[in-house]
Amino acid sequence: MTRHFLGDTAVLLGRSLRHVTRSVDTVITTAIMPVAMMLMFVYVFGGAINTGTDSYVNYLLPGILLITIASGIAYTAFRLFTDLKSGVFERFQSMPTARSAVLWAHVLTSLVANLISLAIVMLVALAMGFRSSAPVTAWLSVVGILILFTLALTWIAVIPGLSAKTVEGASAFSYPLIFLPFLSSAFVPTATMPGPLRLFAEHQPVTSIVNAIRALFTEQPVGTDIWIALAWCVGILVVAYLFAMNTYRRRIA
User: Fold this and answer.
1) Which of 251, 214, 223 is nearest to 51 (CA)?
2) Alpha carbon distance 23, 98 (integer Å)
3) How confident is the model at residue 19 (pLDDT cuts 50, 70, 90)?
4) What region does 95 belong to: left with phi over 0, alpha with psi -120 to 50, or beta?
5) pLDDT in the model for residue 5
6) What's the rounded Cα separation, in Å, for the pair 13 and 11?
7) Which of 98, 123, 164, 176 is 20–30 Å from 249 (CA)?
8) String of b and e for 1-12 (b: at least 16 CB within 10 Å)?
9) What percent of the chain has pLDDT above 70?
10) Would you call 127 exposed, middle or buried from its count of C-beta atoms within 10 A (0-12, 13-18, 19+)?
């Protein structure tokens, strides 16, 4: 049964990845907005923002990476919606394939596409002066957190992808997720925010994730932020997966 599921997922993943390679512009488009945002904040606003660090791009990059992921998952919802409306799901259901393999193929495609977009953003950040002397273990930890965050948001994207009535509705859910880093420590320290906003910013998931990645890049003590970040990622992933699978069963039944 497991071998059957893995084999079906691998075949469907290959199909989804071929669609991505035929429209590389979607990956590039995903990276354009975060890169433009990074350029604007570093070169236009960076001189006026006091973060207590010498390099604003070093401070800013973790939040930009999360915005990149939030931008990329909109395409997952779009591709799911398109497959659903074109009858692809029904064709797969009539074949001897594992029921959840088609969803996992879309999710893993999202992971691959987002990792490529993240690599593009990272290269631009390096060109802008981002530097980190963090050891390999710290970089691997950052990659692990970004993968978990991507999977969590992608499973959220599956829900509107399956339940939306229009293609615009399938993609529009990502806008609040893109906006969430602005209400966190991604761009400025939360200590500079007014009371109610500061309270929200310090207790929402993006702040813990950004703080953990920033500490890993700068070789600072991570403290409890990394465990809170992992708890948020895993918690969102599990809840989103359960809701997505329930939506899938109701939609395909």
Assistant:
1) 214
2) 27
3) low
4) beta
5) 59
6) 5
7) 176
8) eeeeeeebbeeb
9) 82
10) exposed
Q: Does residue 23 have a pLDDT over 70?
A: no
Q: Whose structure tokens read 């395409």? A: 75
With beta carbons less than 8 A apart as the criterion, state whether 80 and 158 touch.
Answer: yes
Which amino acid, residue 175?
A: Y
- The closest alpha carbon to 10, from 97, 68, 91, belongs to 97
User: Please, what is the end-to-end C-alpha distance for the chain in angstroms?
Assistant: 21
The total of other beta-carbon atoms located within 10 Å of residue 171's CB is 20
Neighbours of 238 (CB within 10 A): 12
Amino acid at 150: T
Distance, in Å, from the CA atom of 118 to the CA atom of 66, rounded to the nearest integer, reads: 9
Q: Are 209 and 105 in contact (CB under 8 A)?
A: no
* Helix H or strand E segment including 150: helix 136-163
pLDDT above 70 (res 24): no
Nearest Cα to Cα of residue 225 among 235, 236, 212: 212
**Would you state the pLDDT for residue 92?**
60
Say how far residue 234 (Cα) sits from the centre of its chain. Answer: 13
Q: What is the pTM of this model?
A: 0.88
Locate 239 and state its tokens. 């809840």
Length of the chain: 253
Q: Could you read off the pLDDT of 177-218 as tens digits, one per residue?
A: 888 999 999 998 888 889 899 999 999 999 999 999 999 998
Contact criterion met (CB below 8 Å) for 125 and 38: yes
Q: How confident is the model at residue 78 (pLDDT cuts 50, 70, 90)?
A: confident
Q: Which residue is it, tokens 């829900």?
A: 159
